[in-house]
Amino acid sequence: MNTTQTQGSKGYLFSIVLVAVIGGLLFGYDTAVINGAEKGLQAFFMQGGFNYSNFMHGITCSSALIGCVIGSALSGLFASRLGRKRSLFFAGVCFFLSAAGSFYPEFLFFNKGEASMGLLVAFNLYRILGGIGVGMASAICPMYIAEVAPSNMRGTLVSWNQFAIIFGQLVVYFVSFLIVGNHVIPAIERMVVVNAAEAQWSIQEGWRLMFVSECVPAGLFALLILLVPETPRHLVMTGKDNKALEVLTRINGETKAKEILAEIKLTTVEKKEKLFTYGFLVVFIGIMLSVFQQAVGINAVLYYSTTIFASMGMENPMVNTVVMGVVNILFTLIAIFTVEKLGRKPLLITGSIGMALGAFGVALCSIFPTMPPILNVISIIFYSACFMFSWGPICWVLISEIFPNTIRGAAVAIAVAFQWIFNFIVSSTFVPMYNLELGSMGSNFGHLLAYGLYGVMCVVAAIFVWKLVPETKGKTLEEMNNLWKK
Question: Which 3 state secondary structure label does DSSP give 442?
Fold first, then answer.
């Protein structure tokens, strides 16, 4: 008997997890690409023969999130019927087609460069297709990792998925920065395009290149996912015990694999358990974890940071966005290396308090506009950094592990669907709320309202975790059944 059979292969485990987290990278890439592209995109459609309003632009920037709701809602059905692996392949195809279509939405039906309402609809349909891929990947990638990972490494490995999401955002920030180069980004104030002549390259070509750049990681992901195995838990639930044992043996060693297989079979005998078999509370907690992850307002920063930093008077807001991306990466690593030591709850509560301080800091700067702009920037980056070691990765860890085996697919799908619904609500309401003017405060009132609200939600989120969320550190997925039966 070789060493791999007796002890398992960490190299094999890490290799298949690495492929799965590329889905997380695409999640971050696809949702953040709009950050660099939105100004050029807005100027492009404003040149059309129709009224491209701020409301329409907000919907266009958020249209991918509609697909995310659809994709996450379907993820449970896909994961159960097709399996985790094939579902991720489908998501990869959606990513690729969306990136290519967003680059050239005129394909077959329109003349290139001629903005029209029909072209706007086509562009949004391509973005929705990408959103379907994001929604499916956001639910199934953590599920896949959780179902192949040993219990003592699960939190760390699922947290790498969040690292990949943030890394994907950083990559697209940097790619967008390189694509723009010395070209002028169109500055748009009150529906008037400033420096339109100098910004024509960004208006006609720049945003297209940002979208099509996603084809490279999307194509790689779709090909590599074909090389990884299906998860042992899905294999058992579809009657493929021998194949499940083979995968478990390669990861855990033969002795441990047989123990895990026995545990899986005990919890998957009743394959058709109803969603509320283990009570209402487990589903409610999963949903509210998703709701709070978005209600704290983080994606208002991740999607619109360039615009936010510009409104704060920064000379090169794209550079500030890249700096924020680097900080986000570093703080995500804190979660990866501490989640199995400190547990899930302490990180969530600490992060919530830190985010509240950052959000209230931005609100305070709005009340006293004479304060140095750099304090505003520091508050935003601190707020974002606190999210990255807490709600960013830990929410995905909990959603992937908190539900019992027999309801996991459906429960994860519902929880993640709520996440994308609230993501859409936050993202589509941020711009009008942030720009809201009142009396002598002007637009500072909108800044105060937005970040004051997000700060309050951070405090409520901390209380929710403290009172209701169980600690799952060190528990096997099969032990979740007993936890909720109690």
Answer: strand
Question: What does the chain come to in residues?
Answer: 486
Find all residues with CB under 8 Å of 201, minimum gap 6, and list them: 183, 184
- Other C-beta atoms lying within 10 Å of the C-beta of residue 372: 10
- pTM of the prediction? 0.76
CA distance 116 to 120: 6
Residue 205 DSSP symbol: I
For residue 302, give both structure tokens: 């991740």
Q: Which residue has the tokens 């459609």?
A: 45
Give the whole-angstrom CA distance, residue 413 versus residue 430.
Answer: 26
Minimal CA–CA distance to 84: which of 148, 132, 30?
Answer: 148
CA distance 420 to 125: 17
> Angle at which helices 10-46 and 84-103 pack, to 10 degrees?
30
Q: What share of the chain is helix, strand, coil (3-state, %, to 5)?
A: 80, 0, 20
Q: How far apart are CA 10 and CA 256, in angstroms?
A: 14
Note the pLDDT tens digit of each residue in 189-240.
Answer: 444 444 555 567 777 888 899 999 999 999 999 999 999 898 888 888 888 8
Q: Cite the DSSP H helix spans in 343-367.
A: 344-367
- The DSSP secondary structure of 95-108, one letter per residue, reads HHHHHHHHH-TTTT
CA torsion angle 206 207 210 211 (round to 10): -140
Q: How far apart are CA 139 and CA 409, in angstroms?
A: 9
Tell me how many degrees the CA angle 285-387-282 measures, rounded to the nearest 5.
10
Alpha helices (H) along 253-279: 254-267
Cβ atoms of residues 322 and 173 within 8 Å = yes
Cα–Cα distance for residue pair 269/272, rounded to 1 Å: 9
Q: What is the pLDDT of residues 75-108, one digit of tens each?
A: 878 888 888 999 999 999 999 999 999 998 988 8
Residue 165 to residues 28, 283, 312, 368, 392, Cα–Cα distance (Å): 4, 25, 26, 35, 9
Q: What angle do CA 103, 170, 294 make, to 5 degrees?
A: 90
Separation CA 426–CA 304 (nearest Å): 12
Residue 42 in tokens: 């807005």
Contacts of residue 134, Cβ cutoff 8 Å, sequence gap at least 6: 26, 27, 30, 31, 64, 67, 68, 71, 91, 95
